[in-house]
Amino acid sequence: xxxxxxxxxxxxxxxxxxxxxxxxxxxxxxxxxxxxxxxxxxxxxxxxxxxxxxxxxxxxxxxxxxxxxxxxxxxxxxxxxxxxxxxxxxxxxxxxxxxxxxxxxxxxxxxxxxxxxxxxxxxxxxxxxxxxxxxxxxxxxxxxxxxxxxxxxxxxxxxxxxxxxxxxxxxxxxxxxxxxxxxxxxxxxxxxxxxxxxxxxxxxxxxxxxxxxxxxxxxxxxxxxxxxxxxxxxxxxxxxxxxxxxxxxxxxxxxxxxxxxxxxxxxxxxxxxxxxxxxxxxxxxxxxxxxxxxxxxxxxxxxxxxxxxxxxxxxxxxxxxxxxxxxxxxxxxxxxxxxxxxxxxxxxxxxxxxxxxxxxxxx
Length: 363
Description:
Elements: H1 2-26, H2 31-40, H3 46-120, H4 131-138, H5 142-148, E1 158-159, E2 175-180, H6 185-198, E3 203-205, E4 208-211, E5 222-225, E6 230-232, E7 237-242, H7 257-266, E8 282-285, E9 289-292, H8 306-310, H9 319-336, H10 344-347, H11 352-360
Parallel strand pairs: 2-7
Antiparallel strand pairs: 1-9, 2-8, 3-6, 4-5, 8-9
């Protein structure tokens, strides 16, 4: 626009000069009128027209560019609006489908959460043993029992001296007496093997989850508690006494006079040194075989949950399995000697006959 104003001013100056010259020519001669007309023509000469045309072309070019830019901007805005409209339309059209998919996913997630909780339960001290854990502990396979055998642990039992009669109930079932406590870390280890072995002869009910004391050696070892549980078997009578709670010093259960007599007689020399008399866990297999302390040390169970331990019990190459199951095999062999090798599918299956032979020989 500034260039256009400059060009117009230049044209006006040229015309003004011609007008002055023409006025001078009127006083001299008539021929000067022709000259005046001739002199006046330069305002519309080819040179002057070219300047005007160039100025006009420049202005038009700028206007075209501005118009083109506006068109491009308008087209871009229109395209963006179309995209937003299309995206909004797509979302509105498919929102019911998306909502349905999200709902289905949430329902599936909730279902699996409920199923998991139902199978593995809420694992905490004092709660019932979840079905999945109980199934794994009571359902160790025969192939695992056989492959583990005696493992690397020594025979934990000692033969009762003096050939005492088998301790039985009034209906003739041999008595398996266990004395322990919930705080005891060695009892914690032994219970795993006891549940595995006893489940081959009968059925537990109302077992609860437990951990040993958090202030004793091998703190918080995951295990079970026999307190409040029951055991049914047609082959033997299992009597469990958990003398104290997880907090040592707090009485939980008390032995009967008959149980205490057995405990005092066998939890003493020559079965254990006098300085350790009265130690737990204590096991009496019909007063024929005596075990004091655990068959293995629970160091390898440290930091593991009940589920993590039970998950390993059908892996014969796992060190925890080798300890738990080997100890369970010794317990099984001791029981079989009290039940006249019944049930046969347990007592005659490998490795039990060989372990029985070794136990009788004091190995």
